[in-house]
Amino acid sequence: MTTLAHLRQPASAAPLTTIAALCKAAGDPLRAQILRVLARDAYGVLELCQVFGVRQPALSHHLKILAGAGLVATRREGTCIFYRRAPRQDDGLDALRAQLCAALDQSELPAAVTAQLSAVQAARAESSLAFFHRNAGAFREHQDLIAGHGQYGDTIAQLLDAVRRPGDASAIEVGPGEGELLADLAPRFSRVIALDNSPAMLARAQDFASRRGLDNIDFVLGDTAAGLRSGLRAPLITLNMVLHHNASPARMFADLAALLTPGGSLLVTELCAHDQDWARTSCGDLWLGFAPEALTEWAVAAGLKAGDSQFLALRNGFRIQIRQFIRPTAGPILHAMRTHNR
User: Fold this and answer.
1) Does this chain's domain 11-107 share its CATH topology with 138-339?
2) What is this structure's pTM?
3) 155 with 322: CB under 8 angstroms?
4) How far apart are CA 135 and CA 48, in angstroms?
5) C-alpha distances in angstroms, 210 versus 178, 215, 216?
6) 11-107: which CATH number, 3.30.565.10, 3.40.50.720, 1.10.10.10, 3.40.50.150?
7) For the chain, how many helices (H) and strands (E)?
8) Phi, psi (5° rounding) for residue 322?
9) Which of 102, 221, 272, 312 is within CB 3.0–4.6 Å of 320 for a Cys-Cys bond?
10) pLDDT band at 222; cut points 50, 70, 90
11) CA 103, 108, 111: angle at the middle one, nearest 5?
């Protein structure tokens, strides 16, 4: 029988015991700091042990409690498991979780924690740079194991024509690789900036441009943060198979949003999430692709809005997503994520 009390109770209402368990999970100081750290980036348990100076059994216990309360989720990357904040669960507690996390995000992390976070990010970045330093000469061979530029380059070129606005005179390519996309950018823009933090890879892109006679390209050594500091800005930015090599994809999106001029477009070509763990050793990948929702989440958090999307299925089982993200013409880009975990 349906009673008046049942009618008054929202279908998504959570029991008091569940609410109390969630508050208890977030109420421990260490667990609160873990949630703060996992706001945007994902970390493995050993990385978190380094950050907090806690032994693995103890940290795993805290993560289990947070997961049980729906505050953190796991993502398997081949043989590795990474932890991040949990997505919406539609269980009646999403608003409370959001309020708790919003309050945590306003707090400062201890200096020792921020120092260890920087060390973890630096180790990731150094691992990626070291791979490209060792394998620059075999870059194309490694890339072709997954997806060569010829398998998706025409689609990017078509999207370039669709999103380029009259008067857009410059473009930035972050991580130009062997330089193939520069051949599509150079005829469409009066000035192209090729930005790469690997000297070896930047030299290969420069050699490609020289052989093709592309004389309107400036080659800049550095990452996106260096590009911001030097004042680089453009109405169009391309990021072609780069994000899965980056230590902090969320932070990179924040940089890219700040590099865009108002109304500009960011074109991201990236692998969809996969389980081919060999890509770590053979291709130097830090991440095994990304769910489309993850790219959208990072872009929106950086102040961008989603535009066109295309998805290509390759014969070897991989899928590629080609995504457009747009910087609004009104309102500033809040670049707080640059110092989010520092």
Assistant:
1) no
2) 0.82
3) yes
4) 30
5) 12, 7, 10
6) 1.10.10.10
7) 15, 10
8) -115, 110
9) 312
10) very high
11) 155
